[in-house]
Design goal:
This protein is an alpha/beta fold. The chain contains twelve helices and eight strands. Helix 4 packs across helix 5, helix 5 crosses helix 12 and helix 10 runs parallel beside helix 11. The two termini are 26 Å apart. The structure holds guanosine-5'-triphosphate (GTP) and magnesium ion (MG). The site of magnesium ion has 6 residues, from helix 6.
Amino acid sequence: MRKMGFFDSLKQGLKRSREAINEIFYMGGEVDESFWEDLEDTLVMGDMGAGVAMRVTDDLRERAARENLTRAEQLRDALIHRLAAEFPAASRDPFTDLPSCVLFVGINGAGKTTTVGKLAGRAKDSGVPCVIGGADTFRAAAIEQLEVWGQRAGIDVITRERGADPASVCYDVVEEAEKRGAQLVLIDTAGRLHTSSDLMRELAKVVNVTRKRSSIPVSVVLVIDATTGQNGLNQAKEFNDALELDGLIVTKLDGTAKGGIALAISSQLGLPIYRIGVGEKIDDLQTFDALDFCRALVGEGM
Ligand SMILES: Nc1nc2c(ncn2[C@@H]2O[C@H](COP(=O)(O)OP(=O)(O)OP(=O)(O)O)[C@@H](O)[C@H]2O)c(=O)[nH]1
Ligand SMILES: [Mg+2]
């Protein structure tokens, strides 16, 4: 069987959003008042957020009037481009602009450890000297899980025993990485709820210690599960307030029917999406392309 391409798995994931949008495009095909209402509602229902939905609909409405576009199908491409423009562009890619040290943060089960493993696999393939740091000393079996990923990727994992202070683990990881001349340092942290102030404070300390100790640029990346829907926005706000995030990785886009939350978070918080996760395997990670994403979200028509 042919391996499913990235666009296919993304498309399969975003099916529900696309079907809803398709429906309004095919309903009579005339651009009238109810078309605009339906469009705005559909964008909100797809988790894109009221702000984005309104801005995008208003802009398209103006454009349709200006260019005298009266058939819905004439607006599909404009919608794709207008949605894509809501994503802020990354000024730097922390996985290719080296040297680089990246801390992965997020709630439990978001996909941090898996993403670290996938990125380590990429680094190995492209011959980038890389180490993995294991700062999740909290959860039982977290270190073992990370080590399995390290073996799979062929990259060393530097960590300490369970219960060790995560900030001092990061200190050691950075020191050891420097000694080894690593160009890319990927540090996994323990999942935590954004509502737990103690754990968020602990994480802020992890970030501060790493930023202070590291002589190479440190990025803090929030890993967010696309299937969490609207709650994802609250998570992202709290993590951003506590840690001043650099950007996002959105996982499980193969498993959500919507996916619009990626747009809501990225646009509202002004955070670029560096990569997206589209499966559980080592190769199921892709560079984010706003236009491709919006094509999958909107559909390309007939
Ligand atoms: N379908 C799908 N599953 C994913 C993706 N990324 C991660 N997963 C799965 O999500 C589950 C949790 O992944 P982990 O990497 O352990 O998540 P984590 O954020 O490290 O979790 P904690 O360490 O408990 O906070 C695992 O079963 C992964 O296989 C993805 O892009 N798509
Ligand atoms: Mg983990």
